[in-house]
Each structure stands twice: as structure tokens, then as C-alpha cells.
């Protein structure tokens, strides 16, 4: 199979490309290298099963010609990361809405199956009570005037658009709601907490915990997420469906900071930073967000295999290899 992977130079996309080529498929990556980096694809350069196209998902004619040239589309390109969304709200919103619309429209025109990367952010602050979020759970989002929620809004509209393309035009779509996915190649400077902590711990600089540190998260190893994506792409039962992909082990950010410091034998201190200083005044964060992963377990038999220890050690190994 030949896949178009938008955002293939990014964290998740590049790992998916590696896995597709490793199993004998070929990939064409479309990426504008805004948050992705070309060296994420170094191991594929020179491979006849790999091609890289520098360009944007906002270029509708480029997207259309690439979609026409492949068997299937995996859409990972997006404006991501809290800092990106808050710093460039308009550009981010347009990328995440119009870009996905371009991909869906071309996929529909050419009859190509498409997998869309969505996000647990669509749930907003739902799940703060600690109840696991399933695919049917209601969303709780703040004002549309707050840039902080625009990523959630865009991804939710992307999902609706994809499902309506499926229902009205018969487009084979698959939707994946990634919960915090972490691992090698993810960078800390866009606001992703695990690589930010690991990088600080390795450098011996303070780990900055935003807010009280009592907010909790669940982290999924990238190799588990990639396994889920490949199994979903191969599964006819996944067509027209949305799946949570994440790990349901929960840890507070304060405990995570302590674990990173102790596991890596770091001398770093842990500092508490108010949300207002870390982001913008009035920033709203959710206290908890736990995925219910029973649907994907039932439909394709997937479950995460990697815990936090291997996440931290794999990120640290990667980070050390970069210096
Ligand atoms: N990593 C996570 O925990 C997580 C969680 C939920 C959802 N997701 C979703 O998964 C997908 C991949 O995220 P990631 O973590 O790998 O982030 P990433 O920033 O590493 O990857 C996004 C890629 O999209 C590219 N891109 C951005 N705008 C583009 C444009 N206009 N045209 C072409 N390429 C463009 C970037 O250069 C980058 O390579 C995104 O859709 C994201 O919303 C990720």
C-alpha cells in the first residue's frame, strides 16, 4: 500500500512512517516543517519506499494531487502544542480546520480511505471528576473567544466533518483521539510536559510544574500509539468509527516531576509556577483526563504495553543522543 502521511515529519507521523516502511508499505510525506523536523525521517531518506514533499495542507491543489497518487491517507498535520495555539490562534485555527477540510475533500473526490488524528482535547474539561472518558462522552469547553479552546473546537469540527463525509458520501474514515502520547522525537518547547521535564532533569535545571501540580494526566508510549494506528488502518471494523488511543494509568504532574528526577538520578529542583506566568492570564487547565479504552480493546484487541518507566528512559536516551 502507498500512504500519504500529512505531518509525517512530526513526532507521531514520523514513527508511523517508520513502521509502515518497515512492514513493506511505501509513504509520501507532506509536511511544512513548522513543528516537525526533517531529521525525524533520516532513517527513511534514500529508501525507494519513501518520498518527502515540502508543502502545506493549506495548498489544496498540492493536497489533491498527492491524495490522487496514493492508496490511503493518514492525516497527522496540525498546529499543535499549547504554546503554538495560544501564540498564533488564527493561523492555528485555519490550519486545523481548512487543512483537514482539504484532505477530506480530496479523499472523497478520489475515493481514498483516510485516518484523521483527533485529540483528547476535544473533551475539554470533561472528565475532571476522574471518570474515564469514552467515545460518547459529552464535551465541556470554554468560551470560543479564548484561544486556549480553539484547538479543541477545531479538532471537534474535524471529527464532525469526517463523520459526515462518511455518512453522506460513503468516505471510509477512521478517527483516532490520541490522549497524551509521548516518546522519543517529541520536543519540550511547545509545552509537552514529559520531554520538558526529562530535558530539565538531564540538564540539572529546575523542573517547572505549572499550577498546583495536583492535576493528573495519563501518558501513552509512542510505540503503543503506532501499533494502534496500524491496526486501525488495517481493520474494516474501524471504518466510520472514533477510537480513544491512550494509556489509562494516571499520575499527577507533581508526582511525575518527582519520578523523572528520581528515575534519572537528577540533581534538579522542582519549582511551582502559577498558570498565569506559564501561559496567559485566565488560562484554564483540566484537572484530570483518563481515557476509557474499552472500545478499541473490543474492536481490534489493542491495549498499551509500555509504562511510565520505559517512557521516561526512552525519552532520556533519545535526548542524550541529541547532544
Ligand atoms: N502528541 C500527542 O500527544 C497528541 C495528542 C492528541 C492529538 N495529537 C494529534 O496528532 C497529530 C500529530 O501530532 P504530533 O504530536 O506528532 O505533533 P507534531 O507537531 O510533531 O506533528 C505535526 C506535524 O504537522 C506539520 N504541520 C503543521 N502544519 C502544517 C501544514 N500547514 N502543512 C503541512 N504540515 C504541517 C508539522 O510540521 C509537524 O511535522 C496532530 O494532528 C495532533 O493534533 C497528538
Secondary-structure map:
Blueprint: E1 2-6, H1 11-22, E2 26-31, E3 50-54, H2 60-68, E4 72-75, H3 82-87, H4 89-110, E5 114-119, H5 150-169, E6 173-178, E7 181-182, H6 193-203, E8 207-210, E9 216-218, E10 220-221, H7 222-234, E11 241-245, E12 250-252, H8 253-263, E13 270-273, H9 275-278, H10 294-300, H11 308-321
Parallel strand pairs: 1-2, 1-4, 2-3, 4-5, 5-6, 6-11, 7-10, 8-13
Antiparallel strand pairs: 9-12
Helix pairs in contact: 1-7, 2-4, 4-5, 6-8, 6-11
Nicotinamide-adenine-dinucleotide is lined by residues 6-7, 9-13, 30-36, 56-58, 76-80, 95, 99, 117, 119, 178, 180-181.
Structural commentary:
This protein is of the alpha/beta class. It has a domain at 2-182 and 220-247 and 290-304: NAD(P)-binding Rossmann-like Domain (Rossmann fold, 3-Layer(aba) Sandwich). It contains eleven helices and 13 strands. It has helices at residues 11-22, 60-68, 82-87, 89-110, 150-169, 193-203, 222-234, 253-263, 275-278, 294-300, 308-321, and strands spanning 2-6, 26-31, 50-54, 72-75, 114-119, 173-178, 181-182, 207-210, 216-218, 220-221, 241-245, 250-252, 270-273. The strands form four sheets. A seven-stranded parallel sheet has the order 3-2-1-4-5-6-11, sandwiched between helices. Helix 6 packs parallel to helix 8 (253-263) and helix 6 (193-203) crosses helix 11 (308-321). The longest helix has 22 residues, at 89-110. The protein is globular. The model has no long low-confidence stretch (mean pLDDT 94). Nicotinamide-adenine-dinucleotide (NAD) binds at residues 6-7, 9-13, 30-36, 56-58, 76-80, 95, 99, 117, 119, 178, 180-181.
